[in-house]
Amino acid sequence: MNNIWQELEKPILCLAPMEGVTDIAFRQVIAKAGRPDLFFTEFTNVSSYASEKGRANALERLAIAPTDAPIIAQIWGKNPEHFGATCAALKDLGFAGIDLNFGCPDKHVNKAGGGAQMIRTPDLAVECFRNAVANSNGLPVSIKTRLGFSFINEYQTWLPTLLKEHPAALTVHLRTRKEMSKVPAHFELIPDIIELRNQYSPETKLLINGDIKDRKQALALFERFPNLDGFMIGRGVFENPYCFTDHAPTKAELLNLLHLHLSLYNNSNFEPLKHYFKIYIRDFPGASDLRAQLMTCHSTDEALSFLQRFEQHPENFGGKLEP
Ligand SMILES: Cc1cc2nc3c(=O)[nH]c(=O)nc-3n(C[C@H](O)[C@H](O)[C@H](O)COP(=O)(O)O)c2cc1C
């Protein structure tokens, strides 16, 4: 049975799963700019998939494009049977692996017993993991989590609990749930975490996440810690959608990505896309005006035609637009 985690060369660079961001449209944009070794879906709730009412929505979140492969489905929840039911479907949907979200700090998710709440219910986390593996049809099952719920030193017991289950990969976001993303990631703990992996499950691929902006920074960390297997980059894509490459994009290239994003985006839900204009429109004299104007649009078609009109006037960019 193929295991994508074993097939990929070190260091494995991944685009972090991000709810409301890493959907099918955005992943195609990043694939165009320069793809990571592995994509992840936004997290999908297992109880939603397991219910008649929620399944269509779950399947929509799990839709993938040809340029996504290889891609991992990320799932969350608290019901072991529902983990099993969801995992049973994922191979046929085209996924290369399954990732369990044991780290989301969102209070609604935690109240529902999922995400980082799993750190507080380790027996349930293990049961969910085992049910996922038992129903995965051979797909590798990995885990993404945080150091702890409230205290940093929780990692000393929480990570061994997970490693003893021998997940295919473990991604550690180097913060606690309580820290959200408000403090710098605890890079100083990397050597300790590598030790734990080596002690409890040497075959588990170990990935680090938090404050890693781009490929260059990931490679520098890999040089310091060659026993790591990979890195996940999340918010770095907001600063540079080409962050998985060494390429410094021109303004024209960034605007082309916006064209692509607009043309792929689900028009019926245009408003959330507005959060992401800043990724593509910045660092030229008319950038903030253009963003402000695009914010007044009500559909992707309207935004596209507005953008085309703007681009016909290179003076808008404070000079000639690079090819
Ligand atoms: C908007 C947003 C949505 C996120 N959604 C998810 C998610 O669905 N699943 C997950 O495991 N983590 C999620 N995260 C956390 C990221 O995957 C990542 O762990 C975090 O942003 C830290 O990495 P970074 O410093 O590279 O951004 C989300 C983060 C952001 C900013």
Give structural notes.
This protein has helices at 4-7, 24-34, 46-50, 55-61, 80-90, 107-111, 122-134, 155-163, 190-200, 215-224, 236-239, 251-264, 277-280, 287-295, 300-311; strands at 12-15, 39-40, 44-45, 71-76, 97-102, 141-146, 169-173, 205-209, 230-233. With 323 residues, the protein is of the alpha/beta class. It folds into 2 domains: 4-239, TIM Barrel (Alpha-Beta Barrel), CATH 3.20.20.70; 251-317, no CATH class. Strands 1, 2, 3, 4, 5, 6, 7, 8 and 9 form a 9-stranded parallel beta sheet that branches. Helix 5 (80-90) links the parallel strand 4 (71-76) and strand 5. The longest helix has 14 residues, at 251-264. Mean pLDDT is 94; it is low at 319-323. The structure holds flavin mononucleotide. Residues 16-21, 42-43, 74, 101, 103-104, 144, 173, 181, 209-212, 233-236 line the site of flavin mononucleotide.
In short:
The protein has helices at 4-7, 24-34, 46-50, 55-61, 80-90, 107-111, 122-134, 155-163, 190-200, 215-224, 236-239, 251-264, 277-280, 287-295, 300-311; strands at 12-15, 39-40, 44-45, 71-76, 97-102, 141-146, 169-173, 205-209, 230-233. With 323 residues, the protein is α/β, with parallel strands linked by helices.
CATH fold category name of the largest domain: TIM Barrel
What is the CA-atom radius of gyration, in angstroms?
20 Å
Relative strand content: 5-15%
SSE topology string:
HEHEEHHEHEHHEHEHEHEHHHHH
Output the CATH homologous superfamily of the largest domain. Aldolase class I
CATH architecture descriptor of the largest domain: Alpha-Beta Barrel
Uncertain ranges? 319-323
Q: What's the total number of strands?
A: 9
- The CATH class of the largest domain turns out to be Alpha Beta
